[in-house]
Amino acid sequence: MKFYNEHKNLSFEEISYEYIRKWFLYLLTTDLSLNSINLIKSAMASFFNYCIEEEILKINPMIAVDFLEKDERKEPYLLSGKDIFMLKESMKNNLRDRAMLEVFLCTGVRVTELINIEINNINFKKRNIKLEICKDEIERFVFITKECKERLILYLNHRKRDSKYLFTTRHNKQFTRQGVWKIVKDAAFEAKLSVSISPHSFRNYFATKLDEKGADIGYIMYLLGHESEESTKLYCIRTTESLRNLYDQYHR
Fold it and tell me: Is a pLDDT exceeding 70 seen at residue 59?
């Protein structure tokens, strides 16, 4: 009921993937079983497919929403240092994909934000990227590391395609969310990761690492583009080891 009251004025056209994802994260906190939640997802997927077929909507917000596995109600899987290393190794021969991974890891951007990054919005001198305004957000910047900057310059220097977008397909088209998801899934397969991951896994990793290092929640909120602390806390997954280290820090 709380989630409904906070979003009851949302119009039909404003329903986005991010909104639906937040709703299902909320459902995971209720007493509904995973089967019930998956039935809801199935019904919504059919409804939005109908809207696309009837040209009521142009974009299907359910297209990248996965069905839940048995363990998804538990603490989300946090990528380890070894996982990140293996992913980087699996992409080392592809300058575009490797640069894309680096942007995900050091900015925590959403998929929709990543595919809309324009080259002109990157300030290499200041090491920041201006993100396109979405969902009535004010203008927002994210920062990149020196390694990310070098990866992007290397990629752009070797890119033969001419496009305003930072990342493009081999046909010089703007990426779709689904295209980025496939790159991540393929990289995870090549890296032989034992778990299923998505672009949101990098967003979780980014937020959690900042949280573990003591970053202020307001700072993390800004970098993630959130409007409330509750949304940010969903991404800050502290591992048992990090919690123990924090405990030892204050209880010596």
Answer: yes
